[in-house]
Structures
1.
Amino acid sequence: MAKTFQTLGEFIIENQGDFQYSTGELSRLLSSIRLATKIVNHQVNKAGLVEDILGDVGEDNVQGEAQKKLDVFANETFIKALIQREVVCGIASEENEYFIPVTNGSNAHLSKYVVLIDPLDGSSNADVNVTVGTIFSIYRRVTEPGTPVTLEDFLQPGNKQVAAGYVVYGLSTMLVYTTGKGVNGFTLDPNLGIFYLSHPNMQFPEDGKIYSINEGNYVHFPQGVKDYLKYCQKSEGDRPYTSRYIGSLVSDFHRNMLKGGIYIYPSGTNNPHGKLRLLYECNPIAFIAEQAGGFASDGYKRIMDINPTELHQRVPFFCGSKNMVKDAEEFMAKYPEDNKNY
Ligand code: P6P
């Protein structure tokens, strides 16, 4: 993709008019995420050289997963950037058991936005120099401005998202986001510390040949997933599908959006509701997928129509090229007993 000379900052300002009653608050919010992204990127990119930033903290996070030092650094960085800019009234993070009400400063408690974030997705890859990412989701609060946020402000269905995005810290660092008017990708020029528009109006190919799933869990998969995998692997007609799985949702999703493909993390006997979290992984990625012409479901129901019940709720996740997700859903439909009926 050709690099344009439009910066992310210019793009945010130019498009803030897309919002009714825009006060520039969302622009300031996106700019605070941009700043935090640069800080995390700097640390991720030199992780192998910096004493004591890789490896485990020695504790588990709320998910029961070994917390990485980079997880803690990324989490603190994004939370500080959001709080200092006084642009949000509440934050929920994969790394924090409870949401964080933001009440300091003169405006924070009046801000109308809440942010949900996975600060460093795929962080177990960081120690082996494999791409990791950040995922964020932005909603308008539903409770009265000026009052402390409540859990209700966070437990909103994905179809209420105002904006969503991800950062992929790869060979180059990209920030990809949507505000409901399409999907645009920005690549960081590390020498200048500036994100440039490199992937305008990203489109998810309707079809693809890549499937991304951890086949090591095959014996635990629902029958519909097993049947779909066998369909992908049959050699009739076109070349069989290709399996590509990095173990980092952002990386697998980003590649599939560029080339066409499907990412699946299903429920299973070892993960009754799947592994991925609805609020700060599946919903933001689903919003981006649909804005680019793709689709996301839990195998039966559109992800963004699921009404959340818990902050760290997990759901099965089928996301990618529209026709591939529909094919997978046809196999799942043969086994209604596997429908979790949220
Ligand atoms: P598994 C990372 O922990 C993550 O949430 C996603 O980024 C990734 O796709 C998935 O889990 C990997 O899980 O069980 O295949 O190692």
Note: Residues 121-122, 124, 214, 247-249, 252, 275-276 surround 6-O-phosphono-alpha-D-fructofuranose (CB under 6 Å).
2.
Amino acid sequence: MKERISDLLKRAPGPEVVAAEGWVRTKRDSKTVCFLELNDGSCLKGLQIVIDKSQLDENQLSVLTLINTGASVVCNGPIIVSGGGDQTVEMATTDVNLVGIAGANYPLQKKRHSIEYLREIAHLRPRTNLIGAIMRVRNTLAFGVHEYFNKNGFVYVNTPLISTSDAEGAGEMFQVTTLDLNNVPKTEEGSVDYSKDFFGKIANLTVSGQLEGETYAMALKNIYTFGPTFRAENSNTKRHLAEFWMIEPEMAFCDINLNMEVAEDFLKFIIKKALIECEEDIAFFSKFVEKGLKENLEHVVNTPFAHMTYTEAIEVLEKNNDSFDYPVHWGTDIQTEHERYLTEVYCKSPVIVTNYPKEIKAFYMKLNDDNKTVRGMDVLVPRLGEIIGGSERESDLDLLTKRMVELDLDPQDYWWYLDLRRFGSVPHSGFGLGFERIVQYVTGTANIRDVIPYPRTVGNAEF
Ligand code: 4AD
Ligand code: MG
């Protein structure tokens, strides 16, 4: 494997000639010497290349004039002690090879660009320090997810992306069809004849892998999914995407209390891993993106999460209703402003809220004895609000069927899901972590559109 710039920067100075490959971030040129800063996305810092122009022939000098910000180059030379600046080593060479030019119209010239502008050039934005660092943290968090579940005996299961059932029962799905929309086949009654469609029935992109995940938990005990999910919700916010990645563990023989313990332990594990392995990037975000981020994350890792029931949360929030855009009372859904009040002002830490009114939660959540609330749990964090949603599942066949009927869901459509309650049913629980939300949280990024390479939101699927 070739050494990357992060490796070269760690090298002890010596005479060995090594290759540095990358893209030019800056070029400083004088009559006698030229400095290139070369970056390959392996770390924030670039490698400084020092070129003694008095050693170059006419041809080499003319190549050098073509090397500008954005150009790709390969330089071969020894790593030496740096003569100045804040770097400790640099490369001294005259062996500079231009691989691909970038003209003056290269959109990422040296000046600072707004995050909104970078979104318009999403194909080039990974070449900036900010997006490069976010993507390295995203990568570390993804590995952390697999590491955590793997070391705790969870089986990684791939649930389908095309689904014929609505996992959240919320009707926010993107339909998948091969029917000719200009010539839709109709039944005798005049409705769309889906028997002619690709799957012979209505199919959608999945909103969650949970239901299929549950079937595997009922066999393998502890499983998790980690894949893309799709929601056609018309919410234009800083924390909603139409296509996002979700991590969904599901555990058999597990109640809501153990579920909360795992959620907290898991979140702390991956945040801690990022703090250790992405130290430099997180220091960068702490300085330029979200002041105090690093201390904030360390505090989260070292403090037990607070716990409240929904009813307690509403009592706290009601006292403060004057300051909310949407005042709350028992029965209303908790929105971002309320979540932030609970975490930032009241608890000053992440908080797990439980026992929500059944009316505002999904059909599969286990009903409490009060017949009014369900064993749902949301993990709320400062700055962002909801990061995890989960629950103990209804494991009683009759109660689950009854709830489906109340919510106008056809139990026939969920026959296989109900089978889990017919054959060897056990208490079981799970949760979903929105992957982009945790990347946002750990990088201090305000807008979710900047933590996924190509964001899909209402009215936007460019690239
Ligand atoms: O609370 P949600 O809707 O729960 C479920 O989907 C369950 N099936 C999870 C489970 O119990 N297995 O979504 C879970 C998490 C949310 O807490 C949030 O972090 C994220 O997914 N999420 C979104 N992230 C980005 N864009 C959206 N539109 C999101 N909707 C939910
Ligand atoms: Mg939720």
Note: The pocket of 4AD (ligand 1) is lined by residues 167-168, 208, 210, 231, 233, 240-241, 244, 246, 248, 386-391, 430-432, 434, 436-437 (CB under 6 Å).
